[in-house]
Design brief:
The structure holds 2 protein chains of 2 kinds. Chain A is mainly beta. Helices cover about 0% and strands about 55% of the residues of chain A. Chain A contains no helices and 11 strands. In chain A, a hairpin with a 5-residue loop joins strand 4 and strand 5. Chain A is globular. Classes of the chains: A mainly beta, B mainly beta. At the A-B interface, strand 5, strand 9 and strand 10 of A face strand 6 and strand 11 of B.
Chain lengths: ~120, ~110
């Protein structure tokens, strides 16, 4: 149980285009979902926290207009990277938590390459 | 704000030898502590967690960690390394009641046959 999926697993796009990444909790309802960014050989950095039906809370330094997060249901959150640039290339990982808030279940990640 | 320090980005261990990964935390309130493992191009898998119950926590794959408040540490150990333990290991901390995780920089474990 507690499986989180992400789609796509990898995406290549041209600079200036927008990319949407989906995060789904497959067998549980996620009250909260998190989005992380991981650069090569580095740790995960929390970008934002989202609760179903409300606006996401962004970490300091994360541009909310560039990284649009929508948490439309208890099983789906999306991250849209708007007007992507090469410096946005990274590994994006989502996680989801339930009524046991200290436990997060992580998705397999999405590798974004912006050319 | 909470934070975690993991020293030594790369750790080499012989197959069958003890695995020891060090984690020290900083938190202004009682912490929750976690160890995660990440295999190449995959997400994170929870190895074990401490949430203010028993200080010695046993996890999956034979790993365990001990919470030592006096040392602000949560070191991860496994008595005998297997080749399958080669992966990246992350320590993370959150404050009780606040599920925002702060991760350490990670340890890349290499198991030598």
């Amino acid at each position: 149980g507690a499986v989180v999926s992400q789609h796509p697993s990898r995406v290549i796009c041209k600079s200036g285009t927008s990319v949407k990444i989906e995060c789904r909790s497959l067998d549980f309802q996620a009250t909260t979902m998190f989005w992380y960014r991981q650069f090569p050989k580095q740790s995960l950095m929390l970008m934002a926290t989202s609760n179903e039906g409300s606006k996401a809370t962004y970490e300091q330094g994360v541009e909310k207009d560039k990284f649009l997060i929508n948490h439309a249901s208890l099983t789906l959150s999306t991250l849209t990277v708007t007007s992507a640039h090469p410096e946005d290339s990274s590994f994006y990982i989502c996680s989801a938590s339930t009524d046991t808030p200290e436990t997060q279940y992580f998705g397999p990640g999405t590798r974004l390459l912006v050319l | 704000a909470q934070s975690v320090t993991q020293l030594g980005s790369h750790v080499s261990v012989s197959e069958g030898a003890l695995v020891l990964l060090r984690c020290n935390y900083s938190s202004s309130v009682p912490p929750y502590l976690f160890w995660y493992v990440q295999y190449p191009n995959q997400g994170l898998q929870l190895l074990l967690k401490y949430t203010s119950a028993a200080t010695l926590v046993k996890g999956i794959n034979g790993f365990e960690a001990e919470f030592k408040k006096s040392e602000t540490s949560f070191h991860l150990t496994k008595p005998s390394a297997h080749m399958s333990d080669a992966a990246e290991y992350f320590c993370a901390v959150s404050e009780a009641g606040n599920n925002r995780l702060a991760f350490g920089k990670g340890n890349q474990v290499v198991v030598i046959p």
